[in-house]
Amino acid sequence: MWFCRALRRVAPNGSRTYATQIGDKKVAVLGAAGGIGQPLSLLLKSHPGASSFLSHLSLYDVVNTPGVAADLSHINTSVKCTHHTGSDALPAALDGADVVVIPAGVPRKPGMSRQDLFNTNASIVQQLTAGIASTCPQAQVLVISNPVNSTVPIAAETLKKAGVYDRRRLFGVTTLDLVRASCFVAEAAGKRPENVHVDVLGGHSGKTILPVLSRVPGVQLTKEQVEKLTNRIQFGGDEVVKAKDGLGSATLSMAYAGARFTLNLLRALKGESGITEAAFVESDIFKKDGVDYFSTQITLGRQGVESVGEVGPLDEYEQGLLKDALEDLKINIKAGVDFAK
Ligand code: NAI
Questions:
Q1: Which residues form the Lactate/malate dehydrogenase C-terminal domain (predicted)?
Q2: N or C terminus: fewer CB in 10 A for the chain?
């Protein structure tokens, strides 16, 4: 739908309004040569409206960025692509970045939980965020690397240590959970996935993912359907990990979700109002329970997070899910904070 929205903006003379605007934002993708990084960069470079708000795509990885940048630069849009390889090149990759997207790190293999990735990805996210703190401290930071429930607190603590943390500028990307939930619920309810919106709250792993199936507009589900769908949404990533059979986790659907979030954020930074997305951000809602980060719908604005939405009404089953989610989130968040300290 984010894609169609851009296409729909057609001026009276038939030209598209975005064609006459010139983008000035720089987006750095850290982990750009990876399974997510490459298709995510492709979607950003090739999106029909992107050049109205994006001027520069900076591709950073520890390997293979020259090939990715050369390939993307042959796509005829005005978004400039540059490549930067290895930690010495990180400052140049980040210089002047308005938005930094982080899909760097290792993905899951069959049988692994997202938390099993902690040891490797925690240090990668810490190192990259330290680079952001010193080179582009005002940038919006979008963390995709798992376990998001812990990597976001790691990024926050690293930015805090450097004295540049601003809660409006740090996001854990949970968009894929909503994208998946739309698909699965639409399939069960016989609807078009494009027309189904499901609120998904909480965090981004297993029981911390809380789909709110009691209030999907126009959809009534049986108790059995709700239980099955809840489990499928919570563990949807496992279906992909299993099907890829050792060759990684969700990359294409994640790239779609990451591009949707990034493009919506860019539109908000440019001044478009009323843009909402869900994301795992610092939130006051459950601070009293020791949970400092939580995903609800947020409104995006020129500074990043403009306002954090409420949890809204939950039925009894969802209240039980929320209790479980908070228990796990507390542990995952603490692991991130302790690591960064
Ligand atoms: P991948 O292994 O295909 O790509 C990761 C890339 O990161 C590689 O190109 C690698 O060279 C690079 N990299 C490693 N260390 C780096 C460093 N220090 N600096 C810069 N780049 C570095 O993995 P994939 O499939 O792209 O997944 C990336 C991450 O995204 C994983 O942690 C995965 O679990 C996570 N993920 C998150 C989702 C979400 O919904 N938030 C969904 C799916 C995956």
A1: 174-339
A2: C
Q: Is 296 helix (H, G, I), strand (E, B) or coil?
A: strand
Task: Map out the domains of the chain with their CATH numbers.
Answer: 22-174 (3.40.50.720), 175-253+274-340 (3.90.110.10)
Helix locations, 9-85, DSSP H = 17-20, 37-46, 65-72
Ligand 1 site residues (CB inside 6 A) read 30-31, 33-37, 61-63, 103-108, 117, 121, 124, 127-128, 144-146, 148, 173, 176, 204, 248-251, 254
Contacts of 146 (CB under 8 A, 6+ apart): 105, 107, 108, 114, 117, 121, 204, 205
pTM listed for this prediction: 0.94
84 part of the active site = no
Q: pLDDT tens digit string along 82-103? A: 999 999 999 999 999 999 999 9
DSSP state of 211: E
- In this prediction, the answer to ipTM > 0.85 reads yes
Query: Is 22 flagged in the annotation as binding?
Result: no
Annotated binding-site residue? 149: no
The structure tokens listed for 257 are 């979700």
- Evaluate the omega torsion of the peptide bond into residue 147 and state whether it is cis, within 30 degrees of 0: yes
Distance from the alpha carbon of residue 35 to the mean position of ligand 1, in angstroms? 7
